[in-house]
UniProtKB/TrEMBL annotation:
<dbReference type="Pfam" id="PF02784">
    <property type="entry name" value="Orn_Arg_deC_N"/>
</dbReference>
<protein>
    <submittedName>
        <fullName>Diaminopimelate decarboxylase</fullName>
    </submittedName>
</protein>
<dbReference type="InterPro" id="IPR000183">
    <property type="entry name" value="Orn/DAP/Arg_de-COase"/>
</dbReference>
<dbReference type="InterPro" id="IPR009006">
    <property type="entry name" value="Ala_racemase/Decarboxylase_C"/>
</dbReference>
<feature type="region of interest" description="Disordered">
    <location>
        <begin position="1"/>
        <end position="35"/>
    </location>
</feature>
<dbReference type="InterPro" id="IPR029066">
    <property type="entry name" value="PLP-binding_barrel"/>
</dbReference>
<feature type="domain" description="Orn/DAP/Arg decarboxylase 2 N-terminal">
    <location>
        <begin position="70"/>
        <end position="323"/>
    </location>
</feature>
<dbReference type="InterPro" id="IPR022657">
    <property type="entry name" value="De-COase2_CS"/>
</dbReference>
<dbReference type="InterPro" id="IPR022644">
    <property type="entry name" value="De-COase2_N"/>
</dbReference>
<keyword id="KW-0663">Pyridoxal phosphate</keyword>
Length: 489
């Protein structure tokens, strides 16, 4: 059972647990206005009052705190500006898969953050958002020839994943000519596993990149660069949820050392940019932002001083850490029941919105906050979402038709009743933007909000999916196709 009662903190004060004295920040309060938690409470109440969630029709909605996204973007920029050589720009890209929403990409573009894309769909979203080609990086492990050609045609940087992909690039690039876009090779420094196997990209047998420690691999990589003067970047992906910062910095060090080795072997500074892929872990236990971008940038500078001495351009690819804290899923409690002595709140948020939490709950625990039917925190301002007085142990279930569809098990919460709302916190990345089409449940509407002196204002990021759209997405236009095929056979 995951009990966040000792760390959940909606007052914005640093949590009492988990603080080790290293650089830490709480989300807000900013120059004017409330903390992340206070803004969330205001937004939930306003979402109920303004009918974004309703008793009938719209039992679930997703809320995005626009200020929280901008604050995360600013923290990222500031952190790297603090360590990078003056005048040597760092290109931050956002891993689109973490929140594949055009308005989000557009907002980040305005903050100077480009896109890391890994499919034709993600590239289309980045282009729809107006993200310049020069701020876009393509990283998929399964790029087709068509995708490679398109990226080269657009001048979009890409990182080849393996020798076969490099051979395809050889075919597409004019020998002796300049490369149409910045090109790199992805290596796997094989530094080891984090606490979540599925998120660990740098194990000995990870599917990504050229495994650097394999027999002959390092020599092959050096030769690949020597033979291809247009290969000017080196890419690795070393971190994600569950990865210790120290291990990530070791991955960056291994990448830097290989670049130095290649440049000295070819006798010139052929590699001019290091793409340090992979994201920062997110604290799903409280509103505290930890680790911070600043902590990571400083650790990188300490571990790999040469990284920021001005000889290399730097690309980053953060996803989850830019968006997670900004998002809340708000779902109505339809029924409150009990089974075998266990209280169960049946809500409208389950596997369709929280796939990883439902299927691997130990790896992806979420905080749940309880609100009443008017959208007011249940159990008092500071206790909701935690085990305050009157809290009872309960399961928080979703609407999907399988028994394991639970977003929290045995959680101490104010008793959720029919008509209340359950909020899934820190769900701005990889939750509502990555729905799972189970039971033909609709994708919920997503609303950006600002909460200021003049109240809460919402703006639509994505409309809720309509039943007509579900039918259309489910072959509605081909209603008779199978019957007719049988008749014509
Ligand atoms: C997913 C991904 C990221 C971002 O990871 P997060 O954990 O969401 O920050 C960065 N780079 C690459 C290549 C990725 O595949």
């Amino acid at each position: 059972m995951h009990d966040f009662s000792s760390t959940a903190d909606d007052t914005g004060k640093p949590g009492e647990t988990g603080s080790t004295g290293a650089a830490r920040e709480t989300a807000g309060p900013g120059a004017r206005g409330e903390t992340l938690g206070a803004r969330r409470d205001l937004a939930v109440r306003a979402a109920v009052e303004q009918g974004l969630v309703t008793g009938d029709g719209q039992p679930i909605a997703a809320l995005l705190d626009i200020r929280a996204i901008r604050e995360a973007a600013a923290a990222l920029r500031t952190a790297f500006e603090g360590v990078a050589a003056p005048g040597r720009p760092v290109l931050h890209t956002f891993a689109v898969k973490a929140a594949s929403l055009v308005p989000v990409l557009r907002l980040l573009d305005g903050e100077g953050i480009g896109c890391e894309v890994a499919s034709p769909g993600e590239l289309a979203l980045a282009r729809a958002a107006g993200v310049p080609a020069a701020h876009t990086v393509l990283d998929s492990p399964a790029k087709t020839v068509g995708e490679l050609r398109e990226a080269l045609g657009l001048g979009i940087a890409l990182n080849a994943d393996n020798p076969e992909e490099l051979a395809r690039l050889d075919e597409l690039i004019t020998p002796g000519g300049p490369a149409p876009s910045p090109l790199g090779l992805r290596i796997n420094p094989q530094i080891g596993e984090g606490s979540i196997g599925a998120m660990s990209t740098a194990t000995a047998t990870s599917k990504f990149g050229v495994a650097l420690g394999d027999p002959g691999a390092r020599e092959w990589v050096v030769r690949a660069y020597r033979e291809r003067p247009w290969l000017t970047r080196l890419h690795s992906h070393v971190g994600s949820q569950g990865m210790p910062l120290k291990l990530m910095a070791q991955g960056a060090l291994a990448t830097y050392e290989l670049a130095e080795e290649i440049n000295s072997a070819v006798g010139r500074r052929q590699i001019d940019t290091l793409d340090l892929g992979g994201g920062l872990p997110v604290n799903f236990g409280s509103d505290e932002i930890t680790p911070t971008f600043e902590e990571y940038a400083r650790l990188l500078a300490d571990t790999v001083p040469g990284l920021f001495d001005g000889r290399y351009g730097i690309v980053t690819e953060f996803g989850r850490s830019l968006l997670a804290k900004a998002g809340t899923v708000l779902a109505r409690v339809e029924y409150a029941k009990s089974a075998g002595g266990r209280h169960i709140a049946v809500t409208h948020a389950g596997a369709q919105i929280a796939v990883r939490t439902v299927f691997t709950p130990e790896a992806w625990p979420l905080r749940v906050a309880a609100y009443d039917a008017q959208g007011a925190p249940k159990g008092g301002d500071t206790a909701h979402g935690a085990g305050g007085a009157g809290a009872v142990e309960q399961d928080v279930a979703g609407p999907c038709c399988f028994a394991g569809d639970l977003v929290a098990r045995g959680r101490l919460l104010p008793r959720l009743e029919a008509g209340d709302y359950a909020a899934l916190l820190d769900t701005g990345a990889y939750y509502f933007s990555n729905p799972f089409g189970y039971n033909s449940l609709p994708r919920p509407g997503i609303y950006g909000f600002t909460a200021g002196g003049d109240g809460v204002r919402f703006t639509t990021v994505r409309e809720p999916q309509s039943l007509e759209e579900i039918v259309a997405d489910s072959g509605g236009a081909h209603r008779d196709a199978l019957r007719e095929a049988l008749r014509d056979a």
